[in-house]
Write a structure and sequence with these properties.
Elements: H1 5-19, E1 21-23, H2 27-44, H3 58-61, H4 71-78, E2 86-88
Antiparallel strand pairs: 1-2
Helix pairs in contact: 1-2
């Protein structure tokens, strides 16, 4: 079943609430990530991280289906996940700015 951007927005909001995170407050940036997640759902049938390439199957991509397997350690260590959709609560309020972090997928 196809997803709309609103479906994806609800999904991301539920994830952030459940994990105790915040969505990135940069509306334009966050919208582009939500659009990428929506495109990936409609292309692959799952929310592949929009910042990573597919390995060709759900099984091979399982570690990077949003929220990826690396989100919790990335948020804990860096204050945000790899694509910076999800932020540690208070990250930006305390002056944090998302930046590039290592991709744990291949490390």
């Amino acid at each position: 079943m196809e997803k709309s951007i609103d479906d994806t927005r609800r999904f991301a909001s539920m994830v952030s609430t459940k994990q105790g995170w915040e969505l990135n407050p940069d509306a334009e940036f966050t919208e582009s990530l939500l659009e990428g997640l929506t495109v990936n759902w409609n292309r692959y049938g799952y929310f592949l991280c929009p910042c990573r390439d597919s390995e060709g199957s759900r099984e091979a991509d399982s570690s990077v289906i949003c929220p990826c397997a690396f989100a919790k350690p990335d948020v804990a260590e860096h204050g945000h996940c790899y694509c910076a959709l999800y932020l540690k609560t208070g990250f930006t309020a305390s002056g944090g700015v998302p930046g590039g972090i290592p991709d744990r997928r291949f490390s």
